[in-house]
Amino acid sequence: MWDYTEKVMDHFLHPRNVGEIADADAVGEVGNLACGDALKLYLKLDAEGRIADAKFQTFGCASAIASASALTEIVKGKTLEEASRITNDDIALHLGGLPKEKMHCSVMGKEALESALANYRGAGPAPKEEGEIVCRCFGVTDAKIARVVRENKLTTPEQVTHYCKAGGGCGNCIPEIQAIIDDVWEKERRKKAAPGAPTARRLTNIQKIQIIQETIEKEIKPALRADGGDIELIDVVGDRVLVAFRGVCAGCPSSGVTITSVVEKKLREFVSPALRVEEVRDDDRVS
User: Angle, to 10 degrees, between the axis of helix 157-164 and the axis of helix 142-152?
Assistant: First the structure.
């Protein structure tokens, strides 16, 4: 049994905005029933160009249903430009985190939104993913693998499987997936080492703490507070970030999922990939 948050279960058992919009302004469709997941997203705009309504139809697991449901809530009221900035992390964060093995469901939601926005701009149905098929079990291309690696800072084939299913079938493609990962980060290293490229600035501990606190305030707290929860930075010891949950998040059995798939991931993205986040419970603290 997956360690789902209460929010995931609520969106699975009571999904919002299920159905279709007959006169939709934009329709996005991704996935493949043969591979087990498919999602169709409908968007309707108001006179000011904001998303007034969003509905979905999906075939998939609890996480796929919950991710699609959460996405329709997130996009409502946004302009198309604002919607284009929504990430799969935003979907997972809205749900209080997803099991790492189910992050591909949030990625599918983001891709459906991208497809719908392209459809609105006159691009028609989303083109087939560019590149050559690497994972034949799930029809995943090398281009898609490289994209999810880069966007989500993945470093192992197992993580790639969690985000796009590649490698989750027979496993024959795992060596090729590792080669793609290595190629992505080798190219990134070359970019940083190129003449004229800005050099990474070594942060003092005070600077690191300030950036961590700012990231928590801007990127993590808003979503937790929307559901009655909160988070507090307790201490930073080297690359260890100690935090405590507050409100409904305190003592939640799924807090470990939120730590790894939301808090740690955001801090690694905005501060340093070396950071490790640990939860401190009140009964563990020494007064």
Answer: 100
Three-class DSSP category at 23: coil
Residue 137 falls in the annotated catalytic set: no
> Tens digits of per-residue pLDDT, 135-151?
988 888 999 999 999 98
β-sheet bridge partners, residue 55: 42
Flag whether pLDDT at 189 surpasses 50: yes
Catalytic residue selected from 105, 164, 173, 249 = 105
SS3 assignment, position 210:
helix
Query: What end-to-end distance do the CA atoms of the chain give, in Å?
Result: 37
Beta strands (DSSP E) in the chain are 26-32, 37-45, 51-59, 133-135, 140-141, 229-237, 240-247, 276-279
Torsion angle defined by CA atoms of residues 78, 84, 88 and 93, in that order, rounded to the nearest 10 degrees: -30
User: Would you call 252 a catalytic residue per the annotation?
Assistant: no
More confident residue, 12 or 257: 12
- Specify the amino acid at residue 121: R
Report the run of H or E that residue 248 belongs to, with start and end. Answer: none
Q: Are 239 and 276 in contact (CB under 8 A)?
A: yes
| Sheet hosting strand 240-247, strand order edge to edge | 229-237, 240-247, 276-279
- In whole angstroms, give the CA distance from residue 215 to residue 255: 19
Tokens describing residue 80:
């198309």
Express each pLDDT in 198-222 by its tens digit: 555 577 888 889 999 999 998 888 8
Residue 44 and residue 23 in contact, taking contact as beta carbons nearer than 8 Å: yes
pTM here?
0.69
